[in-house]
Please model this.
Amino acid sequence: MPTSELYPVFLKLRDRPVLIVGGGALALQKARTLDATGARVRVVAPALDPALLAAAEAGRITVARRAYCPEDLTGAALVFAATDDGALNHRIVAEAEARGILANAVDDPDHCAFYTPAVVRHPAATLALSTGGAFPGLARALRECLDAWLPPGDAELHAALVALRRRLRRELDPAARREALAALIAGVKARYLLATGRDGEGRERAPGAGTARDHTETASEVGPAAGSAGRSEGPAIDTIAANTA
Model:
């Protein structure tokens, strides 16, 4: 499908039920990526990868060691069909869509209501890349390029920028706020352009001029950092999987 026909969206899945049918490597991969979202992941399959069983024992997911049945779809916000049986995956997707549930047959783009993109997670933003299922390897290559391009160590800087934006919105009138935010955004844009060897206007810089990785700002240059909170429900699936290898 042409990417121009896709509608990019970021889903809030915390505490929402997500069904994965399948117990092998593909199911484990989906469970790992869903783990960070806080979704309530349920895996259904007669046989399960040891890492999935370990994740269930740790309370990260729930599992049902049996064959799929249509009733498994009840209440699901998303469905992933990740078995090694293409016909079964197609049936799962069709039954999910008949109930108005978005479903994805893993590695089978012709039987997907949505695609899972290659993702770049950076303190300043999460970036998602998709080729519409046509060439996933290209999306992964672009992700690796962006990972290499974005300056590291920006967590404190990003928190400070967010705190400063809130302060500007609270303390300045609309006209002054727009002007201040425009200057702030221009500075951030220049920082990331430096990482590509270009100046703040997008022009190529002279050789030897350095990059944003050579001139990493600190949060203290912008303002006070904002606090953050993370999940604390025990070890993540990646950690559990590493311990079962």
Observations:
- The chain has seven helices and seven strands.
- The mean pLDDT is 80.
- The longest strand covers residues 17-21.
- The longest helix spans residues 174-194.
